[in-house]
Amino acid sequence: MSAGADGSGGGGAGTEARVGGDSPGADGFVPSALGTREHWDAVYERELKTFQEYGDTGEIWFGEESMNRLIRWMQKHKIPLDASVLDIGTGNGVFLVELAKFGFSNVTGIDYSPSAIQLSGSIIEKEGLSNIKLKVEDFLNLSTKLSGFHICIDKGTFDAISLNPDNAIEKRKQYVKSLSRVLKVKGFFLITSCNWTKEELLNEFSEGFELFEELPTPKFSFGGRSGNSVAALVFQKT
């Protein structure tokens, strides 16, 4: 994970999403361990040990289709292969590997968990790739060196921040500020979320960003009504 409380570059931190039995915050989310650094440190320490012992790279959150969806969008819009790409909360780094395999040569993954970055580095080394940059970085407390990206990608990180027990609303605001700082003007932000609807994400990223495109995601039907369990949006920095 990469933020003051985030969910990996993979994904589904929001399986506990909305109000249940516990006391929800002002935004309707029930605080969860999934929003804490301690949780993700433990997850990636476990996954790193598993990879070292068995070679298992771990979970691809939101599944392979979520990665392919984003890469198809980048190809459709002819994003240059040397465009700078930042994976926010890269987790096991599997999405970075896919980007590199498709020819993207200027990709960076950040995560606030050192074990996640160590795991990513091991997987990238196993794949024989050398053009991927990795950094231990808290997205809510950025170093001055991180800026100027053409593309920023989030698959679950913003979801997990939303579950942080310690002032999640302020952390979400800081996330938007950090995003504005690292992304170039006219740059694109691709977010996949299982906690937030399209309309809610439009509200969260209303300052400094505009909706560029909604990406198709699987639909479900229940009780005669249909909807999407995942939202995938592309914003452009104004």
Query: How would a textbook summarize the main sheet?
Result: 7 strands, mixed
Shape-level CATH architecture: 3-Layer(aba) Sandwich
Q: How many DSSP helices?
A: 7
Q: What is the end-to-end distance?
A: 27 Å
Secondary-structure class: alpha/beta
Secondary-structure element order, N to C: HHEHEHEEHHEHEEEE
Q: Whole-number radius of gyration?
A: 17 Å
Low-confidence stretches: 2-26
Beta-strand content: 15-25%
Strand order of the largest sheet: 3-2-1-4-5-9-6
Question: What would CATH call the homologous superfamily?
Answer: Vaccinia Virus protein VP39
- What share of residues is helical? 25-40%
CATH class: Alpha Beta
Number of strands: 9
Overall pLDDT level: 81
The number of domains is 1
| Overall morphology | globular
Examine the coordinates and then state which fold CATH places here, giving the name of the CATH topology.
Rossmann fold
Describe this structure in words.
This protein is of the alpha/beta class and 238 residues long. It has one domain: Rossmann fold (3-Layer(aba) Sandwich). The protein has 7 helices and 9 strands, in the order ααβαβαββααβαββββ. The protein has helices at residues 37-54, 63-76, 94-101, 114-126, 157-161, 168-182, 198-204; strands at residues 85-88, 107-111, 132-136, 149-155, 183-193, 209-214, 219-222, 225-228, 231-237. A 7-stranded mixed sheet has the order 3-2-1-4-5-9-6, with helices on both faces. Helix 3 links the parallel strand 1 and strand 2 (107-111). 45% of the residues are buried. Residues 2-26 have low confidence and may be disordered.
